[in-house]
Amino acid sequence: MRGRKLIFPLALAAILVLLILSIQGRNIVARQGWGMLSVEIMVIALALCYWGFEQGRVSSREVALIAVLGAVAAVGRVPFAALPNIQPVTFMVIISGFVFGSRAGFMTGSTAALVSNFFLGQGPWTPWQMFAWGLAGVTAGLIRMVFPRTGTAGMTVFCIIWGYLYGWIMNLWFWTAFVQPLNWQSFAATYAASFWFDTFHAAGNAAFYLFFGASFKKILARFRRKLEVNFIESIE
Description:
mainly alpha, Arp2/3 complex 21 kDa subunit ARPC3
């Protein structure tokens, strides 16, 4: 039990050490580049999130449902890989987070990125994609907490926003890994170059939600009610 309590502070300390060593500029971490450093930090952050999920009160049914949602989102991504940044993963992760909450949304998004990249190619971009889609699920769960009656218009706008946010998060990894020098001019140029790809992503998210969002949400809400009933019966 004591070891479990130490995991969180040790992981945060590791992130802090990596940042300090990189700023000094006279060590192995600095020489490997900001791109690899960002991947290492992202891996530690993801490990913390998965560890927190494992420590929480999660039923076997919920774990199975999250695994299925992640797999479905991953399979849905593969056929659209040839299209320029149009993919159903984001809207499916958002609906999962909105219906089941932030924790399930994060796990669905991160699982979808990891599983789909077994078909599309793993690489240092995978932790960033896991984090970006996981964060989309987290914020969708927060939206449900703050605005539980968000309708089609509000969710469509939210999906559009995340079409851009996902691209901006991935741009940060691309900028640190492949662009030199790292200054505000190269930063602005990187984000400007991705504008149309991010717009395609946002438009695709809106189209997917308008055509399939309502029915997909009803299906997940039905499963959520069954999970709640089974959980109450198990307590009694």
